[in-house]
Amino acid sequence: MVKKAETKVIEMENKIEKMTQFLADNKIECFDVQKIEDEKHTTIFRSRMEVKGQLLPMALLMDDSVYVMLQVQIAPQVIDEEKLKEFAGAINNMNNNVRPFKFTVSEKGDLMLNACITAENNTFNPALTNAIMAEAVKFLEAQYGNIMEAVWAK
C-alpha cells in the first residue's frame, strides 16, 4: 500500500506571514519586502523575472483584501495616449485570448501583465502563488516577442 505524502500546512492566519515563511522554507531569496503604512496593511514583495534576456520588474501586492495581485512590468513608459488608442485593440485581443493574465497600461504608460489571485488569510496557498509566477514566466517566454511586436507596431 502506497502512503500519501503529508503536505505541510502552514498554520498562520496572515497570508503575508505565510508567504514570508514559504520563501524562507524554500530558500527563495530574490524578493525585497516593503510594508506600506496604509489602511489595508499593504505589503509588496518585489523581484524580477528574466524573460528573453530582459529583467522585468515584478511585484506581489498583498493586503487585508481577499486578493493577491501579481504585476509584471513588461515595458516601461512605452504607451502614451496616442499609442493607447492604436494599442487598445491589441490589448483587448490579448486579454480575450489569455485566461490567467490580463494586460493593462499604467498612468505612466507602462505595459503591465497582471494576475489577480483569490487569497483569504485562512486559505492562502503560497505554493500556488509561486506556481502562478512560474506560469507567468513561461507565458512571457513564449509570447514576449509577439507582445513587443504589438507594442512597437506603427
Provide a quick synopsis of the model.
The protein is an alpha+beta fold and 154 residues long. 36% of the residues lie in helices and 28% in strands. The chain has a 6-stranded antiparallel β-sheet.
Set down the secondary structure blueprint.
Layout: H1 15-25, E1 32-35, E2 43-51, E3 54-62, E4 67-75, H2 81-97, E5 102-105, E6 111-118, H3 126-152
Antiparallel strand pairs: 1-2, 2-3, 3-4, 4-6, 5-6
Task: Summarize this structure as a short list of keywords or feature phrases.
single chain; 154 residues; alpha+beta; Yope Regulator, Chain: A; six-stranded antiparallel sheet; 3 helices; 6 strands; 36% helix; disordered N terminus
Report on the structure:
There is one protein chain. The chain is of the alpha+beta class and 154 residues long. The protein has a single domain (15-152), classed as Yope Regulator, Chain: A (2-Layer Sandwich), CATH 3.30.1460. It has helices at 15-25, 81-97, 126-152; strands at 32-35, 43-51, 54-62, 67-75, 102-105, 111-118. The protein has a six-stranded antiparallel sheet. A hairpin with a 5-residue loop joins strand 5 and strand 6. The longest helix has 27 residues, at 126-152. The radius of gyration is 17 Å and the shape is globular. It starts with 14 loop residues before the first helix and ends with a helix. 18% of the residues are buried.
